[in-house]
Automatic annotation (TrEMBL):
Keyword set, alphabetical order: DNA-binding, Transcription, Transcription regulation
UniProt protein name: DNA-binding FadR family transcriptional regulator
Family annotation (PANTHER family): TRANSCRIPTIONAL REGULATOR, GNTR FAMILY, UXU OPERON TRANSCRIPTIONAL REGULATOR
Molecular function in Gene Ontology: DNA binding; DNA-binding transcription factor activity
InterPro entries (UniProt xref): GntR_C, TF_FadR/GntR_C, Tscrpt_reg_HTH_GntR, WH-like_DNA-bd_sf, WH_DNA-bd_sf
Taxonomic lineage of the native organism: Bacteria, Bacillati, Actinomycetota, Actinomycetes, Streptosporangiales
Gene3D superfamilies listed in its UniProt record: GntR ligand-binding domain-like (1.20.120.530), Winged helix-like DNA-binding domain superfamily/Winged helix DNA-binding domain (1.10.10.10)
Domain HTH gntR-type: residue ranges: 1-67
């Protein structure tokens, strides 16, 4: 763990970016003054955390990557599984977090993210009835807002919660009429964000999440009560 922390510190110190190769194994063994087994275990840990990828073969080695919320989702899933927590806990957490992210995003979201949000809304509308596109755009919409809040903690938390509760994980279905309802809510949230109205954005998001919970309670109560189980993405 200490060697892994030193490797990350050196990545930051050197200003490495995604795709950069780290020094060869021999140089790292000398730099960190550890055995080959310790170094490889440290690199494997960083690979599992999404910090690097390990390219096999000649000319391979550790390559810098950008960690995402997948590791956080995995950790949360494991913790919640051992608590025997149901999927309802994720939905309730979103109800508390996402209105705040929308409020902050109304004040802080960049024009580029706002354009991406509009694209998500339009793409969902054009593909109503396509379940796969709906799930992808639903997640993208909420991810953009969460990261657009300017608060990295909210960004990664919402991203991780969506990884755990993505609809397919609990077997819920979204017929076209339901997709249209979600699209309408997304459009309302987008318009509030576009006008930079924090109160309207928070209210629209709160209503959207609350309506989702009411719908799930009516249609899929057993799914919400299903214990969370760690699964591969």
């Amino acid at each position: 763990m200490l060697v892994a922390q030193r490797i990350v510190a050196d990545i930051n110190r050197r200003g490495n970016t995604v795709g950069d190769r780290l020094p060869p194994e021999r140089a790292m063994l000398d730099e960190y003054d550890v055995g080959r087994g310790t170094l490889r275990e440290s690199l494997r840990f960083l690979e599992l955390q999404g910090v690097i990828s390990l390219k096999p073969g000649p000319g391979g080695g550790p390559v810098v990557q950008r960690p995402d919320a997948a590791s956080l989702a995995t950790t949360l899933s494991l913790l919640l599984q051992f608590e025997n927590a149901p999927f309802r806990t994720i939905a309730e957490a979103r109800a508390g977090l996402e209105p705040m992210t929308a409020r902050l995003a109304a004040e802080r979201m960049s024009d580029e993210r706002l354009t991406a949000l509009k694209d998500s809304v339009d793409t969902m509308r054009k593909h109503l009835g396509d379940h796969a596109v709906f799930l992808d755009e639903n997640k993208r919409f909420h991810d953009i807002i969460a990261h657009g809040s300017g608060n990295a903690v909210f960004g990664y938390l919402v991203d991780a919660l969506l990884e755990i509760l993505d609809g397919s994980a609990i077997g819920t279905d979204y017929p076209e009429a339901r997709q249209a309802t979600v699209h309408k809510a997304h459009l309302q949230i987008y318009r509030a964000l576009k006008t930079r109205d924090p109160e309207a954005a928070a209210t629209a998001m709160a209503g959207h999440i609350e309506e989702y919970l009411r719908h799930a309670e009516r249609k899929f109560p057993e799914a919400l009560d299903t214990p969370i189980v760690w699964r591969n993405a």
